[in-house]
């Protein structure tokens, strides 16, 4: 979950970053506490069994097994596999954020290049923006569960004012097994050409600029659709998951504190609590949970996308009608 915290560290006072470590919302503690307690429970259960239940011969067999697991568990390249995979997942997540179709640029072009202060001119600008916003909403509801809950069907889009009943009929009449988010782009292009022929757009250069920006928005929507459609190969996820879980399964036995009287290498002290093993679990399992929460969840952009939906409506509708052609008095 994406949590904004930059305002908390803006002044960089003493203890500011320590306060961030204690935050619960959006933290690694919230993601990892269940697995962490499960690991601790299994570890101390095995430790108490070794100390209190096993007899001498069984302890000897367990100690040999613990030394074996501790020696060969390090052969699993957990750091390399996790580092490579988390880098891939986070870069993919950031690429999705950069592909979010914001309406501001195309709104500026429509507002400044589509002339007419009469009712038809305002309707023309609003319709163009409505089509671009409709394209964005159609793709956002297909990649985010949060936006899908806001618009579970195209009828909800009609009720929100992004599509007229007549447009809805035409939209539904096109039978396609694929996402039809591109249809409003076709409507936008046809209406923009009509506005150019009517003289509402002064020349073809301005029309080309508007259509180029529409194509940019269409490309952003296409990238979002591609990110949702084409997943990271399953074998990558399987390798990382098996590597992490097998490593810590081996650690449950291999990192046990053995009887210091027997002078096994590395077991001179019996601390009972494996501090550095728990820290290692916190780091490695935390990396894996970052992958799960960032990539596997379809609602990982949920804090951003529901905010964007009303932004589409407000920017698209208001700016091309209310402040269009408004010029303030220039000051000295």
UniProtKB/TrEMBL annotation:
Transmembrane segments: 28-54, 75-94, 235-257, 269-287
InterPro entries, A to Z: Bestrophin, Bestrophin-like
UniProt catalytic activity: chloride(in) = chloride(out)
A GO cellular component annotation in the UniProt record: chloride channel complex
A GO MF term: chloride channel activity
One Pfam family it belongs to: Bestrophin
Origin superkingdom: Eukaryota
Family in the record: Belongs to the anion channel-forming bestrophin (TC 1.A.46) family. Calcium-sensitive chloride channel subfamily.
Function as written in the Swiss-Prot or TrEMBL entry: Forms chloride channels.
Record-given protein name: Bestrophin homolog
């Amino acid at each position: 979950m994406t949590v904004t915290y930059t305002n908390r560290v803006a002044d960089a006072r003493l203890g500011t970053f320590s306060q961030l470590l204690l935050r619960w919302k959006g933290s690694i503690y919230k993601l990892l506490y269940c697995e962490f307690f499960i690991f601790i429970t299994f570890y101390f259960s095995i430790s108490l069994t070794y100390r209190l239940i096993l007899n001498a011969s069984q302890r000897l067999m367990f100690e040999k097994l613990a030394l074996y697991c501790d020696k060969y568990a390090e052969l699993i390249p957990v750091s390399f596999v996790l580092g490579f995979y988390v880098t891939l997942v986070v870069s993919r997540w950031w690429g999705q954020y950069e592909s979010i179709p914001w309406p501001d640029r195309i709104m500026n072009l429509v507002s400044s290049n589509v002339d007419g202060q009469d009712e038809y001119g305002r309707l023309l600008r609003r319709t163009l923006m409505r089509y671009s916003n409709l394209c964005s909403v159609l793709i956002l509801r297909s990649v985010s569960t949060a936006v899908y809950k806001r618009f579970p069907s195209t009828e909800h889009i009609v009720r929100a004012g992004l599509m007229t009943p007549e447009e809805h009929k035409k939209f539904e009449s096109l039978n396609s097994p694929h996402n039809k988010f591109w249809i409003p782009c076709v409507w936008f292009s046809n209406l923009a050409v009509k506005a150019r022929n009517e003289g509402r757009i002064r020349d073809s250069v301005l029309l080309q600029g508007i259509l180029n920006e529409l194509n940019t928005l269409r490309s952003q929507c296409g990238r979002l659709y591609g990110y949702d459609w084409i997943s990271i190969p399953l074998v990558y996820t399987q390798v990382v998951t098996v590597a992490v879980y097998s490593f810590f399964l081996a650690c449950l036995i291999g990192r046990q504190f053995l009887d210091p009287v027997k002078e096994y290498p590395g077991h001179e002290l019996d601390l009972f609590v494996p501090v550095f093993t728990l820290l290692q679990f916190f780091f490695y399992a935390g990396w894996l949970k970052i992958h799960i929460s960032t990539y596997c969840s379809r609602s990982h952009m949920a804090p951003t996308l529901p905010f964007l939906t009303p932004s589409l409506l407000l920017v698209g509708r208001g700016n091309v009608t209310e402040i269009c052609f408004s010029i303030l008095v220039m000051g000295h």
